[in-house]
Amino acid sequence: MVAKPPEDRPTIARPAGVATGAGGGACTASQLRRFIRSRPYVPMHELRRRFALNGGADEMAAVDIEGQRLWVGLPVREGRLLADLLRGGDIGYEISVDPFTPVIVGVYALRSIQRP
User: Fold this and answer.
1) pLDDT tens digits for the chain (116 residues)?
2) Whole-model pTM?
3) Would you say residue 114 lies in a domain?
4) What gap in Å lies between CA 63 and CA 72, rounded to an integer?
């Protein structure tokens, strides 16, 4: 059974082409790569918003990159997809080391898009 939102609260529309699952949105590795390459820098909250990855505010996934455990503010499935792109050298990352645990706060393309 799906609960209806209260009448006084606006509903949030999902972007066109975004599949939804039980935990919110879903995306593929190629969709992530394409979106990240289309911008000079993408903060994690922008990935969550673009692909409607609506999890808890403090939802984090651990990713192991070059022998270091990093944390990313994405659901586990999308965190694994992002980790595969990082390991493959498709994207780079920026971490915040303000807390004692390194947290990925944004990503950027390492290879430019080939345009005809």
Assistant:
1) 444 444 443 333 333 444 444 445 678 999 999 999 999 999 998 999 999 987 777 788 999 988 889 999 898 899 999 999 999 998 999 988 777 788 899 999 987 656 56
2) 0.69
3) no
4) 7
